[in-house]
Amino acid sequence: MKSYINEIEVSGFPYEDLAPKDDADNSNYYSEALDWALKNDKVYNIALTGPYGSGKSSVLGTYKKNRPHYHYLNISLASFYEKKEMVQSDSPQNNDSKVEKINNFEDIEIEKSILQQLFYKVHPSQIPYTRFRKIINWSVWSIFKKVIIVLITILLGIILFYPSAISTIQNNVDEVRHFFMPEWAYGIFIILAVSEITYIIKYCNERLRVSKVSFEEATVELDKTSDESIFNKYLDEILYFFEVTKYNVVYIEDLDRFNNTRIFTKLRELNALINNSEQVNRRVVFLYAIKDDMFKNKDRTKFFDFIIPIIPVINATNSGDKLLEKIRSTNLGDNISNDYIKGVSIYIDDMRILNNIYNEFVLYKSILTNVTLKAQQILSLIIYKNLYPNDFANLQYNKGIVYQAFENKKNFIKQKTTEAHETRIQLEEKLKHVNQEVLMTTQELKAALLYNLFGMVVKNGAIQLDYYTNYSIDQIMDDDFDLSLLDKPGSNTLYFNINGGRVESSSMAVANEKSGSELTYIQRSKNIKMKNEEIQEEIKEQIQYMENKERNLCAYSFKSLIDTFGVENVLDDVVRKEKSIVYLLRNGYIDETYPNYLTYFYPNSISVLDMNFILGVRNHESYSFEYSLSNTKEVILSLNEYEFKQIEVLNFALVEFFLERRDINNKKFCMIIEQLSNESPISITFIDNFLDKTNYVPLFLDSLCKKWNNIWRYIDQTSGYSTLKKDSYLQKIIAYVDLESIEVINCNGALKL
Fold first, then answer.
1. H-helix or E-strand spanning residue 13
2. pTM recorded for the entire structure
3. Tens of pLDDT along 101-112?
């Protein structure tokens, strides 16, 4: 099918209307099918079937344009809300009766709307004998003509039937004229009189309204208790309408939005009455535009004499190509990738929605030009806005599904941060207890345990738990023996056997109490085993890992959070069931920067340059270290704490701001220094250049050395600096860094050339 688009050039951009097109059938197949059906005298009810947005209205619009010899009457019954009115039934079978009442009321509503559109379509002069009256706007000239005609009629009547009255009037006029009135004054009087009468009639027509006029059955009333059809009640009016008009093709669209199949039965009956009426005496065809699944099973073939399926002009498989073609034609979407379009387009299967997405993208992208916003992010929000208009409106007020998704993220990070914190505390406690343990080997600990169990130094013999379990002292003293075997549930009492005799002893609980330690012997045994340097190093690494995790979780973007932990763990059921929203979130097309895309940016305390820097940090897009900031303080306040861990935040003016105010203990500044000590190429480049530009070399270098204990080892062994540059760094470290930090740096004699 050829171009489905009717383009209108406005301000350089080809916006597209959402109305039905009149060039949607270049192949002419649909028109030929309609020609055949309309020429077939057996066909009275025709259906154009297809999903919403498939182009049914456009096919008919094209046909109307190319076949003007038919007289078309269009009836549109669009309903975008669900009517919910409960009617209490008096029937014992109240459930079924209640539903039937509601549906009957819907039938009446639909029939009333059809009747209104019939009679309001034509001018009142075409249906002069109808009992339905409409307000008619009379022009001044039409009223003036009517007044003149009435006056002339009255004057002629007087001349014809009362000729003597003319003489009497003439005599009276002559007498009055002799006193004070010139002849031309009578002409003025007549003009003023006619004008005043015209004005009075016009005023009454505009200002005065009759509150109620009843002409027999001419008032359409919705009686909810009546089962009589509106069509049946006003059938004579409908037949009269078609008698005096020339309409022979009645096009009814959007009737399927009501999900009411009974109305089709009534319309088919009405069509039969019209076509069988000698009063109308011509063939009238009803043409319906409905969705394919309006009827169940084989029912639709009973309602219609001919069915024409409309193949959708667009669906999820080809909408991406069409959308990309439109956007690329504007030069506004140069950074939008093909992969992105292919991914999001599967959720767009309606041509009107696609056209509206395009129109809104052009407007948003054209208006939001004062700050650097990503075209893909703008388009993603526009797609979300068109697929979920109510939720988009709620998002402005911190409500709805997308807002809930970001609340899910916040709660998930809080939960994981708490878990990492608790794990770190447990590891630190474990390490603390390991270091506090005074005994060095498990043999020493077990010897102390045996002494507290039996009050003597035990070297031989065995410990009996029950009649079947015995452990020799040699077994127990072995490094691999697990002391928890002596503290099994149900075997709390231990017996000491030596030389065939049995001495009753206390339990492990008693021994633990005698030890005077807050830890049990089993716990202390585990701690002693962890005195190994390698094991302690592993614990320290775990602590460091948990500490980093605790800090870094806040810096996770929505995309990275979902990639790491999975959609099912981050998002709740309400959000997950909206597949298109989940797709946009998990791919980062809607992210934490979405508030910047919702409204126009007004540069007040933060300039456009400042906002671009902030957006760069949040979009992980780096600017030059020398990027100029207008209001550094506001930029720092606008950035979240976790964002200072990103390389994109590295900026000379921003670091200089902290140093100038001696605000070196600020958590955000500390995060920058921590980042600069990570020995990455970007961090080293920043340090090298910043030292040549800053006015606060001593303060900066001292802050850096406090955090970066390995700084000199890196400079001396890894950096690849020349000897001259190494000397320069060494001189600055000795001159500006405090003695305590120098001692840490010089650990193992590292501070030497």
1. strand 13-16
2. 0.62
3. 444 447 788 888
